[in-house]
Write a structure and sequence with these properties.
TIM Barrel, about 35% helix, alpha/beta, single chain, 9-stranded parallel beta sheet
Length: about 375
């Protein structure tokens, strides 16, 4: 059920809100916290601690917690797309990250490596800063994540480990490497991705896109993922400003070939190369695939969605609310060593801005994690909203 204030002023609120992060809501939205204005490190440090704990999401506990949208942050309690290690160079301290999750109220995180790792001697943390340096799939980050979780598993944050080593253009040794993971980290990796089908931004680093032919060769590892119920997050650009649906046939072939696999389409197919696509066309493409493939989910991670598409908020909020059980949130934060927890807080806020205007059903399913729990078949439950 929509709240009365949202139904009455829906177009004005959404278009005004999504045009600028500087909008002040005042008394317009009494059931939501106001968005932060130009937050600084001091802003994040001064925020009150969240009132919920991991135990409040356990239906077997005696918790009587309810989520109060008037008092709690609108930022997601789930980060289904988080990179704990960078493309190259040192990473943030894991305990600093876990402390950040706790103080920001993020209780569930999918720890992804990086689909393509820069050469070890690159002396570079970000691929766009070193064009021409090869970025290739690797097990390095996944193993580092696994070792950290085994040694220092946090008590108030649920970490899901993801396999990101797979080379989708050359998948021949995928099963062999999954067996290596099984031996080294038994029962610890229950997600896969972010895996790149086509990421145009990486082409300058010698990344090789998947093809129709290589997608057909995924069958062995996709069968294993299907048997284990492992979701797969795929980065597959829709296209670019010159040809908005140039690469859509690749994802369509994946969905047609592996309809029974749990597939999460990262960033709804958006990228920095695609910023002018008609929003109604984009939403229609997503909606038609969701209708045809019941195991398809969309993640709304990465600030590219906000930066390129916030002016069409009405279209996308309507789309999210029309598909409240098929969307998962994420920051797409890359925890390079030169970043701070306040940097993560800022990116989490940006990628959560749309959540604050969702109706209660969509907010509970997306922001409070019910879709994530259902996708993962976890024994957690999103808390009810306070009356």
């Amino acid at each position: 059920m929509k709240r009365p204030w949202l139904a009455i002023t829906r177009t004005t609120i959404i278009s005004g809100l999504l045009l600028s992060p500087m909008v002040a809501w005042g008394d317009t939205a009494p059931t939501l916290r106001a968005p932060l204005k130009n937050p600084t490190a001091d802003t994040w440090r001064s925020l009150p601690a969240p009132t919920h704990s991991l135990a409040d999401f356990d239906p077997s506990s005696d918790s009587e917690y309810c989520f109060d949208r008037a008092k709690e942050p609108y930022t997601a309690v789930v980060d289904a797309h988080f990179h704990a290690k960078p493309f190259g160079g040192p990473a943030m301290d894991p305990q600093e990250l876990w402390s950040a999750f706790d103080r920001l109220g993020v209780r569930f995180v999918t720890y992804m490596g990086i689909g393509q790792i820069l050469e070890l001697d690159a002396d570079c943390a970000y691929y766009l800063d070193c064009p021409g340096v090869s970025a290739i799939p690797s097990i390095k980050n996944d193993f580092a994540n696994g070792l950290e979780k085994a040694a220092l598993d946090p008590t108030n944050v649920h970490i899901t480990l993801s396999m990101t080593f797979l080379d989708l253009a050359h998948p021949e040794n995928a099963i062999e490497l999954i067996e290596l993971y099984d031996r080294e980290f038994p029962d610890m990796f229950s997600w896969s991705g972010e895996l790149n089908i086509i990421k145009q931004a990486l082409l300058g680093n010698n990344a090789e896109p998947a093809t129709i032919e290589s997608i057909d060769k995924w069958a062995p590892f996709m069968a294993l993922f299907r048997e284990r119920g492992i979701p797969v997050t795929l980065h597959s650009d829709l296209g670019n400003d010159d040809d908005p649906t140039k690469f859509l046939p690749l994802m369509d072939h994946v969905l047609k070939t592996y309809p029974n696999n749990k597939i999460v389409w990262a960033h709804m197919g958006l990228s920095k190369e695609l910023s002018t696509m008609d929003p109604k066309t984009h939403a229609a493409i997503m909606a038609s695939r969701l209708a045809k493939y019941p195991n398809l989910y969309l993640d709304i991670s990465w600030d590219v969605i906000w930066n390129s598409y916030h002016q069409w908020g009405e279209t996308f909020i309507d789309f999210f609310e029309a598909h409240p059980t098929r969307i998962v949130p994420g920051s797409d934060f890359v925890a390079a060593g030169y970043k701070s927890w306040e940097t993560y807080a800022s990116e989490l806020e940006v990628t959560s801005r749309a959540l604050r205007v969702l109706n209660d059903e969509a907010f509970r399913n997306i922001a409070l994690g019910q879709n994530y729990f259902d996708l993962m078949e976890l024994s957690f439950e999103a808390p009810p909203l306070c009356d």
